[in-house]
Specification:
269 residues
């Protein structure tokens, strides 16, 4: 029912963390139960389409929450997908969860629906704006990081002399099971969220391992701690010695500060 959904202003926080994308599969026989569960959660019926998505033959969506489900219509295709259906929750979905209901939802997905995760994005919003993405890029260009093999500038563009996007990425989507973006969320959201966002996309087996870790959390505090740990542990920033060795004892000050804020971050809604 609607009581499951609520909003809070993350801008009032010094820092916030949360899940920004969740994708995976559920056994086909659980589709009626999952549909009923999502109808109750969203307090609305799904809209069914006459087309499919992501190699599945049919799909539906719960508006305006950005929850999508896809499945196959014939046995041959079901076997190809191992008799499982696809569930996708976009970033906009998680704006409508209270922290405790997000925690319960993750547990429900695993315990009630045998959800197997193939992608999970964890995000940290730094409202203090400790460092700008272009400064992160400058350190990255000097090789002052580990956890990824390469980096790239991302989304930095100007229009009529005005900056419209600013970011840096580490790794590649699908490569190694993790991909990190640091970008100006204020520009990306057109002023809706005034922060610098650090967002890690985990995929494949790594995504499912992290999802299981979150499912096994005892309470909301441990849940928040684990999310912070996975974000902060995805990369490290420190100077390199003249020989090229990464000097972990000389961690860059901005990253020390971000790790401090991550330790105090609250679940974002």
């Amino acid at each position: 029912s609607q009581e499951h959904l609520g909003r809070m202003d993350a801008g009032e926080r010094k820092a916030s963390i949360g899940i920004d994308w969740l994708q995976g599969t559920v056994p086909f026989e659980k589709m009626p139960l999952l549909t009923s569960y999502l109808n109750a959660l969203c307090d609305t019926q799904a809209e069914f389409y006459n087309f499919g998505m992501m190699s599945f033959q049919a799909c539906c969506q719960w508006h305006p929450f950005g929850i999508k489900m896809a499945w196959d219509l014939d046995e041959k295709n079901r076997k190809r997908h191992k008799d499982r259906i696809l569930l996708v929750l976009e970033g906009s979905t998680f704006r409508d969860f209270t922290p405790i209901n997000l925690f319960r939802f993750v547990k429900d997905m695993a315990l009630k629906f045998s959800f197997k995760c193939s992608r999970i994005d964890l995000a940290f919003d730094d409202f203090e704006k400790i460092i700008e993405p272009r400064e992160v890029l400058s350190y990255a260009d000097q090789g002052f990081y580990k956890g990824f093999r390469f980096h790239d500038p991302h989304g930095r563009r100007m229009r009529n002399g005005e900056l419209k996007g600013d970011g840096v990425t580490f790794g590649a989507r699908g490569g190694g099971g993790k991909y990190l973006r640091c970008y100006n969320k204020e520009l990306e959201s057109k002023g809706e969220t005034d922060s610098i966002r650090w967002e890690v996309e985990f995929s494949k087996d790594r995504a499912n391992a992290i999802f299981i870790e979150l499912v096994n959390c005892f309470d909301l505090d441990e849940f928040a701690c684990k999310i912070s740990m996975f974000i902060g542990g995805s990369i490290d920033f420190a100077e390199r010695m003249p020989c090229g060795k990464f000097n972990e004892l000389d961690r860059l000050a901005f990253w020390e500060q971000i790790l401090h804020y991550l330790g105090k971050a609250v679940i974002r809604c």
